[in-house]
Amino acid sequence: MSTRIQLQPAFVLHRRKYRETSLLVELLTMDYGRVTAVARGVRRSRSQVSLEPFSAFLVSWHGGGELVTLTQAEADGAISPLQGDCLLAGFYLNELLVRLLQKSDPHSQLYTLYRDTLLKLNTPSLEQAVLRRFEKRLLEELGYGAFTKVETIHHDFLPEKKYRFIPEQGFVACDNESVEDNIFLGKSLLAFALETWHEEQTLRDAKRLARLMLEPLLGPRPLYSRQLFVR
After folding, report:
1. Per residue in 101-126, pLDDT tens?
2. SS3 sequence of the chain
3. pTM of the predicted structure, to 2 decimals
4. Is residue 107 part of a domain?
């Protein structure tokens, strides 16, 4: 069934050429989740619309199913351009959302998280805690959070004890001599659950844990944005 949506807050996650004068645009919308839209004619020289990634718009569209037709897009405030590593981090956020979100699955809190994260990336240097917080809350929003009872977290994990992460099961205590990639000190798990990354080690462990948790959701195809970081 065809529907018409008017002036929906949205961010551009990705765009690519479509036919001679149009674009296919991946949008993160406030009320409709990820939406793929065709923006007809916007590549013509006289077009006034520039659908750049990280830009906020109020968009209107019509249609149904996997692909809708964009009928209007007007700027909804301005976010300063990301630069350097912060720009690469922005591409990473966008790629995660395009890969992990189902189309037309509403996530209003995720929209707010994404907007706030972009604002925090507008700094001269990249703060790793900003990315870790986004990864953690994205996983929670999708139903894959590692810690379901934060109120009992201090009883569940001892700071100097080691725990093994097992996908779809959680954490189990293990020998303190173990050093595998999926083993973490309790203090790092506490820091992850409470988002209190005051030490470099807990921040590095948060990155390692987030990757382990995202891996089965992303599948075998690597993230292109991660490859940009190591170049």
Report:
1. 999 899 999 999 999 999 999 887 78
2. CCEEEEEEEEEEEEEEEECCCEEEEEEEECCCEEEEEEECCCCCCCCCCCCCCCCEEEEEEEECCCCEEEEEEEECCCCCCCCHHHHHHHHHHHHHHHHHCCECCCCHHHHHHHHHHHHHCCCCCCCHHHHHHHHHHHHHHCCCCCCCCHHHHHHHCCCCCEEEEECCCEEEEECCCCCCCCEEEHHHHHHHHHCCCCCHHHHHHHHHHHHHHHHHHHCCCCCHHHHHHCC
3. 0.91
4. no
Domain that holds residue 28: 3-75
In this structure, what token pair is assigned to residue 165?
A: 């992460």
> CB under 8 Å to 133, separation ≥6 — which residues?
117, 195
| CATH code of the domain covering residue 189 | 1.20.1440.120
